[in-house]
């Protein structure tokens, strides 16, 4: 039985097929588990420190001994702190924990999945076609050198945009950026947490400073930030808002560029509960979301600005970073800081300034590695689900 648990212990029951699980690969493996267990979907993080909720689960006859805590459907990245709390509070039950965005390395009973993995379903369902298309496209130069897309203009992302602008490199990329000057106050607080001085810098930025064209999927529809985050799609009759969970992105963007640059979900102040509590130990988790999955699945190299040891950890799940694109990953050895942003940018800048024919040759020579990484990622995600429902 799947149950939705809120912090004040209200329960609502849903049919299995009505929830996100219907899109999970290998879902047929879950039948035995659901016959003898329950899935609990917290609405937020509060229940983890809510004694009434914890006691309710322990004492209620509605819950069996086998429980999956699903943080994927609520899109809440579980922290190391909360993982340890759950293990302690429910040590009398057989619990399993599945969490998005954060891969808890070596943590017993913890499994990784991403709520936006559906964005990649079309690519994986037609994987042979896309693999063959990649090979066929080798004879053609691509339209731009790099892809830089974001829906949240957080501070490090604005920094990168500013550096690209000052070096006149925006013209070489496919850049999709929402309105910077229309960012709402909640976003400002999140992106500048612990770094209040950044807020005043963000507030001084004007969209006209960058003169970004209305390109790709990210057309600025309104001045309102909440509307600005989503792009619009033509459904044959009307323009409708995209659904970022189910694959509404254009894979052709990736065939028109040689590499992608981005920052992961958290960088400066706004981060997981571990960041807030300061209890993160190096190597305990890897922060990886759909932002990282997309370039892997769509077979272009990527430069990710995130926590220390990101590429090192991805290698541990079998990904390869041996092509010339990854000849300098020294920024991966640095903790999150402004210095790391500049070190990261210097690596990116080299490829942005490179002659496009040379860039094309480097990309061509990375083909086997790109295909390997795509299929290795799929096996990793599938294996996580298989283990979850054993």
Quick description:
The protein is an alpha/beta fold and 390 residues long. It has helices spanning 31-35, 51-59, 80-89, 121-125, 127-136, 155-166, 185-191, 196-204, 225-228, 252-255, 273-277, 290-297, 310-316, 338-353, 356-365, 367-388; strands spanning 2-5, 11-14, 37-42, 66-70, 94-99, 102-104, 110-112, 146-149, 173-176, 232-234, 239-241, 259-263, 285-287, 302-305.
Summarize the helices and strands and which ones pair or pack.
Elements: E1 2-5, E2 11-14, H1 31-35, E3 37-42, H2 51-59, E4 66-70, H3 80-89, E5 94-99, E6 102-104, E7 110-112, H4 121-125, H5 127-136, E8 146-149, H6 155-166, E9 173-176, H7 185-191, H8 196-204, H9 225-228, E10 232-234, E11 239-241, H10 252-255, E12 259-263, H11 273-277, E13 285-287, H12 290-297, E14 302-305, H13 310-316, H14 338-353, H15 356-365, H16 367-388
Parallel strand pairs: 1-3, 3-4, 4-5, 5-7, 8-9, 8-12, 12-14
Antiparallel strand pairs: 1-2, 6-13, 10-11
Describe this structure in words.
This protein is an alpha/beta fold. It has 16 helices and 14 strands. It has helices at about 30-35, 50-60, 80-90, 120-125, 125-135, 155-165, 185-190, 195-205, 225-230, 250-255, 275, 290-295, 310-315, 340-355, 355-365, 365-390, and strands spanning about 1-5, 10-15, 35-40, 65-70, 95-100, 100-105, 110, 145-150, 175, 230-235, 240, 260-265, 285, 300-305. The protein has a 6-stranded mixed β-sheet with strand order 2-1-3-4-5-7. The chain has a 4-stranded parallel β-sheet with strand order 9-8-12-14, sandwiched between helices. Helix 3 links the parallel strand 4 (about 65-70) and strand 5.
